[in-house]
Amino acid sequence: MDPLWTTTILLVPCVVVLTAGFFYLYGFIVGLLSKTSVRNKVVVLTDALSGLGRECASVFHKGGARLILCGKSWEKLEELADHLANASDPTVTFPPKLVLLDFGDMESMPEAIDEILECYGCLDILIFNSSMKVKAPAQSISLEMDKLLMDNNYFGPVTLAKGVLPSMISRRTGHLLLVNSIQGKLAVPFRATYAASKHAVQAFFDSLRAEVEEYGISVSTINHTFISKSAAGAAPSKSIWSLLYIKKPLGISPDEAATEIVKTLNNKRKEVVIAPSLPKVAIYARSFFPNVFFAVMAAGVNNAAVADKM
């Protein structure tokens, strides 16, 4: 047998084993970091019933965090809490506490904030995971829908942040983490109100970061393209500018996003953008070559209109 062929045959299994070992070690380290970073800490998670919310709840619960799960449905929150309890060792985990929280109902926010603070008397980490999406031409969206979108994506998170900040400031510790869309940095057509709400909440937390740093409070933002349960089976987009916010046909998976959240909490990174190269380039193009960026956006709208007629 040819020596080269023999060498190749022997090398392939070695490469496979080494690759598998690398991914196993990476997963082990990430899991270890998640446990050491949140053990015994009070972690508040909004919209715990979403795909990312459930993934984060599982990671932090197994890591020994004192979880406060927030959502709009009490029944579904109880189901999630039962699932977490059944899937973990009760000797090293804490039963999650549940709070009804609906950013679309601003009148209920003061009561919800009081309940969150009463759970453990304080909190260490607050993850803003909630979001409401609308895609339509700007002139077709009613003012009522605009207000509802702003309540869910801006006024709700801001009200919650302001409600817990006095507790964090008095303890001189805490971490606020905003999970935001890349459209908090980059607006695309037919998402005018959505992008406006995301820009607003991004600006608030960017400003807040400098204000609370002296109190030992960290503020992080994570901008992603799209979070989905599955990245397969999506219909191809008809527009050019859709490439600016799509990583996979349906975005990144919840476990990828949860891993990035864990790393951000560990490293206390101020800003993270989870996106392929093209959206990142577009962010810089928007700043340094605005006319080129606007031309591409307009071309994308024209392209979508032509595609719809075909």
Give a description of the structure.
This protein is of the alpha/beta class and 310 residues long. The protein is built from 9 helices and 7 strands; from the N terminus they run αβαβαβαβαβαβαβαα. The chain has helices at residues 3-38, 51-62, 74-86, 109-120, 143-171, 192-212, 254-267, 277-288, 290-309, and strands spanning 42-45, 66-71, 97-100, 125-128, 174-181, 217-224, 271-274. β5, α6 (192-212) and β6 form a beta-alpha-beta unit. Residues 230-238, 245-250 and 306-310 have low confidence and may be disordered.
Labels describing this entry:
single chain; 310 residues; alpha/beta; 7-stranded parallel beta sheet; 7 strands; 55% helix; globular; disordered C terminus
Brief digest:
The protein has 310 residues and is an alpha/beta fold. The chain has nine helices and seven strands; from the N terminus they run αβαβαβαβαβαβαβαα.
Percent of residues in beta strands: 5-15%
- Number of E-type strands: 7
The average pLDDT value, as a whole number, equals 85
**Biggest sheet architecture:** 7 strands, parallel
In terms of structural class, how would the helical and strand content be classed? alpha/beta
Based on the structure, what is the oligomeric state of the protein chains? single chain
Helices, strands, pairings?
Blueprint: H1 3-38, E1 42-45, H2 51-62, E2 66-71, H3 74-86, E3 97-100, H4 109-120, E4 125-128, H5 143-171, E5 174-181, H6 192-212, E6 217-224, H7 254-267, E7 271-274, H8 277-288, H9 290-309
Parallel strand pairs: 1-2, 1-4, 2-3, 4-5, 5-6, 6-7
